[in-house]
Design brief:
This protein is mainly α. It is built from 6 helices and 3 strands; from the N terminus they run H-H-H-E-H-H-E-E-H.
């Protein structure tokens, strides 16, 4: 999109009441930074694939690696990032470790993202 494609007002006028209302509702910079960091995690197609897989079923690293045709090391690395950002959780069952989405919010984000791009 070229700069000329963005429409602007014909004259400069700040609507102080709107600006004040929105400013009062703005989260702290730290919160917005953390939100941006979470969305950065969603910016990697491998992590998106893993999140999609885990939205369908709890799985171990071996199963995810097989399904995505990747090595376990690469999957483990991505799972570590997802876990650090509280998007997935793990549970141990004997010698196996199973991963799942951390909560319903992650599935909602994935679902709404899919809905948005498929419109």
């Amino acid at each position: 999109m070229a700069l000329n494609d963005v429409e602007c007002c014909d004259f400069y006028q700040v609507h102080e009441d709107v600006v004040r209302t929105v400013r009062d509702k703005m989260p702290d910079e730290d919160v917005l930074y953390d939100l941006a960091e979470v969305f950065k995690v969603f910016g990697d197609s491998t992590r998106i694939k893993i999140l999609y897989v885990l939205s369908e079923s709890e799985m171990c690293v071996c199963d995810i690696a097989q399904l995505l045709n990747m090595n376990q090391s690469a999957i483990s690395h991505q799972l570590r990032i997802l876990k650090q950002n509280q998007l997935v959780k793990s549970r141990r069952d004997g010698r196996a470790v199973f991963y799942s989405l951390a909560d319903g919010h992650v599935k909602t984000i994935m679902s709404q993202g899919m809905e948005h791009i498929l419109e």
